[in-house]
Design goal:
The structure is a single chain. This protein has 185 residues and is an alpha/beta fold. It has one domain (2-178): Rossmann fold, CATH 3.40.50. The protein is built from five helices and twelve strands. Strands 4, 5, 6, 7, 8, 9 and 10 form a seven-stranded mixed sheet that branches. Strands 3-12-11 form a three-stranded antiparallel sheet. A two-stranded antiparallel sheet has the order 1-2. Helix 4 (132-136) links the parallel strand 9 and strand 10. It is globular, with a radius of gyration of 16 Å. The protein starts with a strand and ends in a 6-residue tail after the last helix.
């Protein structure tokens, strides 16, 4: 499959994603059986994952959204910009951050710090994908979906310059240009 100038191959199937989402939801139901957590999906990338996850979660819960961006094309800019913030108090609440992918962990660390400063009771993370650099840095993800290497991925909410989010499967490219931070192939 091709998006713009990049060739992608199927990496994780829709069925594998569904199975993983069901397992993660069951684990959260068990862990939060006596609580009412606030799920905090990080937009835009986590929209498909969070929608499918929340349809499977059976415990009482609330949902609020935050939109944060740190990417330009295929490379993390290192600049974190909150575009849409929280409009409700999270004081003394159990928070579950919902991420599509954790790459370097820079964005996630910023979000966790901000949430803890608001007096939350607890902050945990669920992520569909976790890249090797985040694992190497020991970024705290209580509910990891799939551990991947350093490949660039699209599909199931993940995009390349806004394209590919609507794909049911996850696709990858191992383009050396992408991995070296040069999207001009």
């Amino acid at each position: 499959m091709k998006i713009k100038e990049l060739e992608f191959e199927k990496f994780i199937s829709e069925d594998e994603i569904k199975q993983k989402v069901t397992l993660l939801a069951e684990t959260i139901d068990h862990d939060y059986a006596a609580k009412t957590p606030v799920f905090l999906p990080i937009l835009n990338g986590s929209f498909m994952f969070s929608a499918d996850l929340l349809k499977q979660v059976s415990i009482p819960c609330r949902v609020s959204f935050v939109k944060i961006s740190s990417y330009v094309g295929t490379v993390s800019s290192g600049q974190i910009k909150t575009l849409i913030g929280l409009e409700e108090s999270l004081f003394n609440q159990d928070i579950i951050i919902v991420e599509d992918i954790i790459d370097t962990g820079l964005t996630l660390q910023k979000i966790i710090e901000e949430l803890k400063s608001l007096g939350t009771k607890s902050v945990e993370v669920i992520s569909l994908l976790r890249k090797k650099p985040a694992r190497d840095k020991k970024i705290p993800v209580k509910y990891p979906g799939f551990d991947i290497g350093t490949e660039f991925v699209v599909g199931y909410g993940l995009d390349y310059d806004g394209l590919g989010r609507n794909l049911k499967d996850i696709y990858r490219t191992d383009s050396e240009d992408i991995l070296n931070g040069n999207p001009e192939v």
